UniProtKB/TrEMBL annotation:
Entry similarity comment: Belongs to the glycosyl hydrolase 63 family.
First-level EC class: hydrolase
Protein name as it appears in the record: Mannosyl-oligosaccharide glucosidase
Origin superkingdom: Eukaryota
Length: 480
């Protein structure tokens, strides 16, 4: 039997074992496993991003920049970049399925941003909490945050909250639908009693912007939703912010010597088109004078609408509808305790490496591996021209030279070697990744392995580096 045939047979065998079964019990277990792995932080190339394990669907992300001076908007943090020179960005806890906590420490802008992700038990609903605080008291810590959501492929996404030229007030509600998701609702809610940033320059003229959420809704071509903030090509966020800044600076009121406050100058346009499939929501906070301790923040809730979730059996239609602050706080605290208990049982640390510092470190390195898991979909570029001398045949010589070509579209759930340099799948690295992932969650490691096996072609060949789709290719640099 040829090597390719043997590996193909192995692939069929593995897929049958872990994905397909005539047993109702095993099928239900596999379905539950897939549901629990459907939504997650599967955009590791972003500092924060959530998406499902499905192509052409809903994707979210977070970006931020400083408002301490007039240059912060030129250094928007979005994709993980070494050039951003963050003090650190690290998952402190991540269980690979339901719960994650991360700290983004931006020393230059004097802000520490914490993100938390929590999913309902059935995997259908999820919540994100974004909190921030000043790193050093006494230094300015004025921060603009933009949370964005985009829907690719079939479906619709519409903003239900009415806005005006000043922005959106209070809770933000969107409704949407997609073939893989059914109908859903998304809510963005500020924490109770939070104090928003106000303009320090020309305060009275921009008083109406305090506490408002600036917004943008645009139509982005299919396959380019990830480009809402792109290093190269279309950049919908910067285009909108620049339009507002240009309008203010050319209106005859402000001059370069006496400009408006950066808070007012660098805002989204407060407009949304009827056919928009991408929305961005911008909030501004300060790191001092904040109630609820020194932190500010907001929560994002994704909630399926009962009865509309296509293909989901009735037992999977139960999920809690969380409310901000207390209920989500309690749920996150409970998830944290469950995670720590499980970690202690799975990875008991021997003395003298069992101090709290050692435990924190062990949780972080494990969580960053799990937080580096991403879902990728799209075509890759393969050059089959290279052959060893012993592979050449007369038929090859007659066939002529092959050129690099796009493959058919594929999908891959994979851990990634680096969120900044290599946010994509590497065959060699994955063996080492799965050694640890398997100890923590064997079913998760098998799901990843199943995706890799599905990439093996009929000749038994699989590319060592999987760069699937334009978003993954946008992060390919001279170091790859």
């Amino acid at each position: 039997m040829r090597l390719g045939q043997a590996l193909a047979a192995l692939a069929v065998s593995v897929v049958g074992v872990i994905g397909v079964s005539d047993s109702d019990a095993e099928h239900a277990a596999a379905l539950m496993s897939n549901r629990s792995l459907f939504w997650n932080t599967y955009r590791p190339q972003l500092y924060h991003g959530v998406r499902p394990r499905a192509p052409h669907s809903l994707m979210t992300g977070l970006m931020w920049f400083g408002l301490n001076d007039f240059t912060g908007n030129q250094e928007i943090r979005h994709t993980c970049e070494q050039s951003d020179a963050l003090t650190s960005y690290s998952y402190t806890q991540h269980d690979g399925r339901y719960y994650a906590a991360q700290d983004l420490v931006d020393g230059k802008n004097n802000v520490k941003i914490s993100t938390s992700f929590l999913k309902s038990e059935d995997g259908g609903a999820w919540s994100v909490r974004v909190e921030g605080e000043a790193i050093e008291e006494g230094r300015p810590s004025r921060t603009s945050l933009i949370y964005h959501l985009g829907l690719e492929g079939l479906g619709q996404l519409r903003l239900e909250t009415e806005g005006d030229d000043s922005g959106l007030e209070g809770e933000i509600v969107l409704r949407g639908s997609a073939p893989q998701l059914g109908d859903f609702r998304i809510r963005i809610v500020d924490h109770p009693e939070v104090t928003h940033l106000s303009a320090a320059l020309y305060a009275e003229e921009f008083e109406h912007l305090t506490g408002m959420t600036a917004y943008l809704g645009v139509r982005v071509p299919d396959g380019e939703v990830w480009r809402i903030k792109a290093t190269h090509g279309a950049d919908y966020v910067m285009r909108s912010i620049n339009a507002v800044a240009q309008r203010l600076m050319t209106g005859g009121v402000y001059t370069p010597e006496s400009p408006p406050d950066p808070f007012a100058l660098f805002q989204l346009q407060n407009e949304a088109y009827a056919d928009a499939n991408v929305y961005a929501f911008q909030k501004a906070f300060a790191g001092s004078g904040i109630t609820r301790g020194s932190k500010w923040g907001f929560d994002v809730f994704y909630e399926p609408i009962e009865g509309s979730d296509k293909g989901m059996t009735r037992e999977f239609r139960r999920w809690p509808v969380l409310t901000p602050d207390l209920e989500l706080s309690n749920a996150l605290a409970s998830a944290k305790k469950v995670y720590e208990t499980r970690f202690d049982a799975t990875f008991p640390l021997p003395a003298p490496f069992n101090t709290e510092d050692h435990k924190t470190f062990a949780q972080a390195i494990t969580s960053n591996l799990l937080g580096g898991i991403g879902y990728y979909h799209g075509a890759s570029i393969v050059d089959r021209n290279f052959k060893h001398d012993y592979d050449e045949t007369d038929e090859d010589e007659d066939a002529g030279e092959e050129k690099p070509a796009l493959t058919e579209e594929r999908e891959l759930l994979t851990a990634t070697p680096s969120r900044s340099f290599f946010p994509r799948g590497f065959y060699w690295d994955e063996g080492f990744h799965l050694a640890l992932v398997g100890e923590w969650d064997n079913d998760l490691s098998l799901e990843i392995l199943k995706d890799w096996i599905a990439l093996i072609d009929e000749d038994g060949w699989v590319a060592r580096e999987q760069i699937l789709g334009d978003e993954a290719r946008s992060k390919v640099g001279e170091l790859s």
